[in-house]
Amino acid sequence: MVFAEGAAFLGLILPGEAALITGGLLAFQGVWPLWLFVISSIIAAATGDSIGYFIGHKYGARIKSHQLGRFVGEKRWRLAQHIFDRYHWGAIFFGRAQGLLRALIPALAAMNNVPYKVFVKWNVAGATIFAGGVGVLGYIFAGSLAQLEQYLKYWAFAILIVLVTVILLLKRQLERLLEE
Fold first, then answer.
1. How wide is the angle at C-alpha 175 spanned by C-alphas 171 and 179, nearest 5°?
2. CA distance 44 to 10
3. What is the mean pLDDT of each run of 10 residues along the chain (180 residues)?
4. CA of 63: how far to CAs of 67, 68, 125, in Å?
5. How many domains does the chain have?
6. What pLDDT, on a 0 to 100 scale, did the predictor assign at position 123?
7. How far is CA 81 from the centre of its chain?
8. Are 100 and 82 in contact (CB under 8 A)?
9. Distances (CA, A) of 123 to 24, 28, 149
10. pLDDT (0 to 100) of residue 39
11. Would residue 122 count as lying in a domain?
């Protein structure tokens, strides 16, 4: 999924954070080593975006007018274009933090004639921070689930009691208003 976000514009539909968090959880459970998962995630993210860059370079204009481009919508293309035009390298780096941008930025970079050498430098930096970081966060989250579960079960009861109380109070007020 992380690879397909940038390579096949899958980030428009399914952001890769779910896969990264799940992979971190599985690393915590010993399915694979965390370091291997993080390195694989970074490579998948950077490679997928590089494929997206080459697709944008070759087919950029046709993508916008194709069914996929119409699915993205003119408003989203303009938003991504505006962000890219205004922030250049920052769009490449920080574009990794948001699914829609993660899917569009590689193609937009190529469509705007950003040299591949510049693109790949900021793309790898962004993939390292964001893909690696989210995988590690999934690992940390898995480690704290047992402790979190202890607290959440009590909070769930408290929230339920508050909600029921609020609903009953609102019901009573509505009944009074209807009687008047």
1. 170
2. 13
3. 74 74 91 95 92 88 77 77 78 80 83 88 93 90 78 72 84 75
4. 8, 7, 26
5. 1
6. 93
7. 19
8. no
9. 22, 27, 37
10. 96
11. yes
Q: Is residue 52 part of a domain?
A: yes
Q: Which domain holds residue 77?
A: 2-144
With contact defined as beta carbons under 8 Å apart, do 111 and 62 qualify? no
**What residue has token string 């929230």?**
159
**For the chain, give me the number of helices (H) and strands (E)?**
9, 0
Distance, CA of 27 to CA of 126 (rounded, Å): 22
Residue 180 resides in a domain: no
CB of 99 within 8 A of CB of 12? yes
Instruction: Specify if 172 maps to a domain.
Output: no
User: Beta-carbon neighbour count of residue 51 at 10 Å?
Assistant: 15
Q: What is the pTM of this model?
A: 0.72
Around Cβ 180, how many Cβ atoms within 10 Å?
A: 4
Residues constituting the chain: 180
**Residue 131 and residue 16 in contact, taking contact as beta carbons nearer than 8 Å:** yes
- 42: Cα within 13 Å, side-chain hemisphere: 16
